[in-house]
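Figure caption, in words: inputs first, then the predicted bound structure.
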Amino acid sequence: MNVFELLKQDHERVRRLFSELAKTQGRQKQARQDLFHQLKRELLAHSHAEERVFYPKLVDQPPAHDIIEDGINEHHQVEKLLHRIEGMPVETEEWMSAVTDLDQMFEHHTREEEARVFPKARQLLRDDQFEPIGTQVEQVENEERRRTPY
Ligand SMILES: [Fe+2]
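Bound structure (fe (ii) ion present):
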């Protein structure tokens, strides 16, 4: 699949999980845990695949350097908060408010990516690279998903 289509689908998948999570109540502990686990798996698969496959294709291109650095920093912030949430009791308001923060952080990141990084990358890469890079991203994502089992 075209790498840009694929990465946008990832963003949508994560957005859906956040909105499912927002609908849960504190007493639905199991539902929260299951959704959070899916969220974690999808977020990590997406970030790691971008870092291992997508960003390296752009990193030698000076005009893309800064935006990639921003992207990586944002991934790290997301991961840090993700791990902090794992240590919180799932039924609490504190937990939901941290999940909401994570949602906002991710939303900011995806908007930046869709508005700035993808258009820049479309210019810097050749059209015939879009599909093969998409295939590589997908492979790494699947490997990463297998590393975060239930
Ligand atoms: Fe990203």
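DSSP finds five helices and no strands in the chain.
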